[in-house]
Each structure stands twice: as structure tokens, then as C-alpha cells.
């Protein structure tokens, strides 16, 4: 069960990565949004590879690595586009559907047959994501106001179908659902990589290839210029450091268990993303209250929504996956 701790840390760092991407580069086109963390994460990855050295690796490692490069390029670009179009709390939670895709991809590509309890845990994670996205608060994904204030919105069917309405209304959410499918395939390829190389080497080799290829594609087709990479050095270094840590922990956790187990726990990043989004909204609200001379302490408490039950379902599913591993 030791793998649970790096998987949880990977979830936290993944949510932080998305939040920083929106906060530090959300005003830029998707190509430039992606360029900053990719460029600034390359120095630590290259330093890690230089320190560890490159051992003899089998052809299957290189096949998985080269296949993972375009998959991750597409996922990274679409993630930037999604969080630019919609708030993090309306996009990142849809990544929680990726564990279900991982179970199928891992069976087809690696021949890994999941345990029934593990599949049940994955389904609970997905169900929790669904409830998480079906909240009835004004600031939530449904965006339809408090369900208690509107009788029709309080019905079970309206709440269950609200994420479908979100997918129709929020392009960022729909894009992120496609990203979930891409990341599921990328995760299985990452798992295949760490079967043939230590996680630090696998991650460093992957990003040593992925970084230059991605930057070259962004410069050729995305309008990115080398000088643009230095426009926001402090923000770029921060995003690059978080991406490096998130990737390092991701490969470490992936080396300790199956891809389905690891991703089921990592998809708790949807819960962390909602918390980050709420925290940022409170900070902004507190700043406006102070600027207006009002008393923050007397503010009314926000209405309850469906996020707590959703988070509880996801946590229960992740716990079941851990116990079944």
C-alpha cells in the first residue's frame, strides 16, 4: 500500500499544476500556456538524466516512450485549452473518468486483468466525480443556483443530468473529457515504460524527448517565439518546478502498482482542484470586501451543494482500490 502516498501527492500536484496554469498563464493562447511549464521543466529533467545516466533499455521501452510523446502532446495542449475556456472546478473533475478508460486500456495493451473489488473502486471514483459535478450551487458546474431554492432543480433527475448540461454548455468540460481518454492511454504507456526502467530514468528520458519536440511543434505551428519563453521567468520557473515534481511523483507511483490503481487514486485531483478553486474565490471575495470596507467575518455562509458527497464517494472508491491492490 506504500504506492498510495506518492499517488496522493501526484493528485495534489496535478491539481496545483492546472491551477497555476490558469492563474499564471490563463490570459495567453493555449500554445504559449503549454510552452512555459514545458520549457522551464526541461533543466531539472536534463540534470536528473545527467546525474542518473542512460542505461541500456530494451526496444519495448522506446516503443512505449515514442508512442507516449504525441499522446501527451495532445493531452497537454487540450488541457491548456480547457482550463482557459472554463474554471478549473468545471474542467479538472472530468479527468476522474480516466480510471475507467485505464482499466480497459491496461487490459488490452498489457493484459492486466483487474480485480472485481478494484473495478468497483474505480466505478465509485467515477460516480463520485459525477456527483461532484452535479452540485446545485450557483458557483458550481451546474450553475443553476441553489437546488433548495428551485423545486425543479431539486429533483433527482435534474441533479443527475446536470453534468450532461455542463458538457453541452461548457466547451472546457467537454474537451477535458476527451483529455481523460488521452491521459488513460498515456498512463498505460507510462506503466509500460517503468516496467523496463527506474521511474526517475523513465521520466527523465521521456521529458528529454517530449520537451524539445513539443517546443518545436509550438514554435512551428503555435506562433511561440523563443523570446516569449522568458517573458514571465518567475511564473515559468514555478510552473516548471511543479510540472517536474508532478511528473517525477507520477512515474514513481506508477512503478509501484498497476496503472488503473494509481490513476484511480490520482484522480482525486478533481477534489483538490475544487478546493483550490474555492480557496481562490474566497481570497478574491475577501479582497473585494476589504476594499469595499465591509466586514468579512459577518459574511453569510455559502449554500450546501453536492461536492461533499461526491468527494466522499471518490475517497471511498480510492480506499477500495488501495485495499484491493
Secondary structure: elements and pairs:
Elements: H1 4-25, H2 30-52, H3 59-85, H4 98-110, H5 116-132, H6 156-169, H7 171-194, H8 199-221, H9 233-254, H10 259-266, H11 269-292, H12 307-324
Written description of the protein model:
The protein has helices at 4-25, 30-52, 59-85, 98-110, 116-132, 156-169, 171-194, 199-221, 233-254, 259-266, 269-292, 307-324. It is an all-alpha fold and 325 residues long. The protein has one domain (4-286, 302-324). Helix 1 (4-25) crosses helix 3 (59-85), helix 2 (30-52) runs antiparallel to helix 8 (199-221) and helix 4 (98-110) packs antiparallel against helix 5. The longest helix has 27 residues, at 59-85.
The biggest beta sheet reads: none
Task: Provide the low-confidence segments as ranges.
Answer: 136-154, 295-305
Please trace the helix and strand order, writing H or E for each element. Answer: HHHHHHHHHHHH
Strand content: under 5%
The average pLDDT score comes to: 80
Instruction: State Rg.
Output: 20 Å
Number of helical stretches of at least 4 residues:
12
